[in-house]
């Protein structure tokens, strides 16, 4: 997983409350399309009209927002089903951070586990950011300093320390577990000495011959 320390780039305003994972990636796109190819289908229900033409009301269809790496959303971003393909699609589209007052629980966790940073801010601060990026699109999301910086604006945020460390070091949950390998090995050795009968069963030794 790529490390995340500081991100600077265009931020697109996404003003819809309760934007669910079905709108982020339609369910039929979640089957049969490889993970690496989901990006073009991210938010297609918003980006395109029913006839397939670009939606002029969608910021992502205008420069510089078509190169956005940050989304400034609204309440309950990523609600609905827990499909991880929603996060994969946004990642494939180029999004690395989402700022919103609140997130769907599973979506929020999936962002972290895919090297992306969700930032929770009070609703009034998010509204101010959406207004700002319509005039000055570039933001910096700085995880090391836990700050968002834009034209004349600095906002502080907090990320749970363990998740912050995992992003800064580019560790997924398996990588985090592997950092504890010496402690795990020490526990297993201690447990084997304390309960040798169980250790022998785990290794396959001491089993009765039933042939």
Which CATH architecture of the largest domain would you pick? Alpha-Beta Barrel
Give the uncertain stretches in residue-range form: 206-211
Classified by CATH, the class of the largest domain is Alpha Beta
Strand content: 15-25%
Distance between the termini: 48 Å
CATH topology of the largest domain: Aconitase, domain 4
Number of structural units classed as domains: 2
* Total of DSSP H or I helical runs spanning 4+ residues: 9
Helix content: 25-40%
What would the principal axes of the Cα set say about the shape? globular
Give the strand tally: 7
Give the ordered list of helices and strands: EHHEHEHEHEEEHHHH
> What profile does the largest beta sheet have?
7 strands, mixed
The structure class reads alpha/beta
Give the averaged pLDDT, no decimals. Answer: 90
User: Radius of gyration over alpha carbons?
Assistant: 22 Å
| CATH superfamily grouping of the largest domain | Aconitase, domain 4
Spatial strand order of the main sheet: 4-3-2-1-5-6-7
């Amino acid at each position: 997983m790529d490390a995340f320390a500081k991100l600077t780039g265009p931020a697109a305003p996404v003003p819809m409350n309760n934007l669910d994972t079905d709108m982020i990636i339609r369910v039929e796109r979640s089957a049969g399309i490889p993970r690496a190819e989901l990006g073009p289908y991210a938010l297609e229900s918003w980006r395109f009209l029913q006839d397939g033409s670009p939606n002029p009301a969608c910021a992502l269809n205008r420069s510089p927002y078509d190169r956005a790496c940050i989304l400034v959303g609204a309440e309950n971003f990523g609600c609905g089903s827990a499909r991880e393909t929603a996060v994969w699609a946004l990642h494939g589209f180029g999004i690395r951070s989402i700022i919103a007052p609140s997130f769907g629980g599973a979506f929020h966790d999936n962002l972290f586990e895919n090297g992306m940073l969700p930032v929770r801010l009070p609703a009034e601060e998010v509204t101010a950011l959406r207004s700002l990026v319509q005039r000055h699109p570039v933001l910096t999301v700085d995880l090391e300093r836990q700050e968002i910086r834009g034209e004349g604006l600095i906002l502080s945020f907090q990320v749970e320390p363990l998740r912050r460390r995992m992003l800064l070091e580019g560790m997924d949950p398996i990588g985090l577990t592997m950092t504890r390998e010496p402690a795990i090995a020490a526990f297993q050795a201690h447990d084997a000495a304390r309960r040798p009968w169980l250790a022998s069963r785990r290794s396959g030794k001491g089993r009765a011959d039933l042939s």
